[in-house]
Specification:
0% strand, globular, 288 residues, 10 helices, single chain, 55% helix, mainly alpha
């Protein structure tokens, strides 16, 4: 099996494991599997957006830069052991993500490229996929460009992508797990779910993605030893946020009230098109 095939298989097993554990040991009890925004996160953010942004980032950003600046001809990590290469890019990128994530919460403009990620009231394994296009382009370019420029082994890309996906699902999962002393090294739902809670105390806290060390080291950790609460107002944003994928991106440019737009006939047709299509499809199935 190729590295891509192996990492894909591991990812599938990981998804099944996380989903199963969420049902057995939920952090917040009673959350439905098909919660609000599930299909937006799965179809639009995870599948469609990821597919097109992968093409944009690799073919139209990383490859042209690599051709213009062939750094690997004079600075290369290809002679390093594979494990060391993966570890190097894992730690350096995670260090960058901590500071950029922290900056997004402190800067009004860049907060608009991040707020969608915090908009969900029901946080689970799929919630980490909800990220603004601009945020993804910036972060994944900075993540994968050095791997290409420094001539890393081809295996590094799929392995790094696998670890990103696994950690992203884990820290957002609705899973009641405690890591004990390991929490000072690795991030977990115990800390990161607080970051998605609607409290002022955590707006500037718990920025780490993989390594919780950064939060402890730079004194941004928030660990009150209890859960945020189960009510919708305990989670997500304190202001109304659009539920539609395209409106979520439009909202980052121009503020508006989604409900007020329903007075326009064309908008209503667009807004309810997928819902009506889904209902029509389900009725056809039932008739069969």
């Amino acid at each position: 099996m190729t590295t891509v095939e192996i990492t894909t298989l591991i990812l599938v097993v990981w998804i099944v494991l996380i989903i199963t554990l969420e049902r057995l040991f939920p952090y917040r009890k009673g959350l439905p599997f098909f919660r609000e925004g599930f299909w937006v996160d799965l179809v639009w953010y995870t599948i469609i957006q990821s597919y097109f942004l992968k093409i944009l980032i690799f073919q139209y950003i990383i490859e042209p830069i690599h051709e213009a600046y062939p750094w690997s001809s004079w600075v290369s990590v290809s002679h390093w052991p594979l494990a060391l290469q993966v570890f190097f890019f894992l730690v350096t990128h995670d260090f960058y993500i901590y500071w950029f994530h922290r900056f997004q919460h402190a800067n009004a403009f860049f907060w608009r490229t991040h707020e969608a990620h915090h908009s969900g009231k029901n946080v689970d394994f799929l919630s980490g996929s909800r990220s603004h296009i601009v945020e993804i382009v910036i972060n994944q370019t900075i993540e994968f460009l050095p791997i290409i420029l420094l001539g890393a082994s081809p295996e590094v890309l799929p392995i790094k992508a696998l670890l990103d996906a696994m950690f992203g699902m884990f820290i957002h999962s609705n899973l009641d797990v405690k890591l004990g002393k390991w929490k000072y090294l690795f991030n977990s739902p115990e800390l990161h779910l607080w970051h998605h809670a609607n409290y002022k105390e955590v707006f500037h806290a718990n920025f780490s993605t993989k390594f919780a060390t950064w939060d402890y080291l730079f004194k941004t950790v928030y660990d009150p030893k209890h859960k945020p609460g189960n009510a919708p107002e305990n989670w997500g944003l304190y202001y109304d946020f659009p539920k539609d994928y395209f409106l979520q991106h439009a909202f980052s440019v121009k503020r508006f009230e989604e409900k007020k737009l329903l007075k326009y006939p064309l908008f209503r047709k667009y807004y309810f098109f997928r819902i009506n299509l889904w209902n029509w499809f389900m009725q056809k199935i039932k008739k069969r």
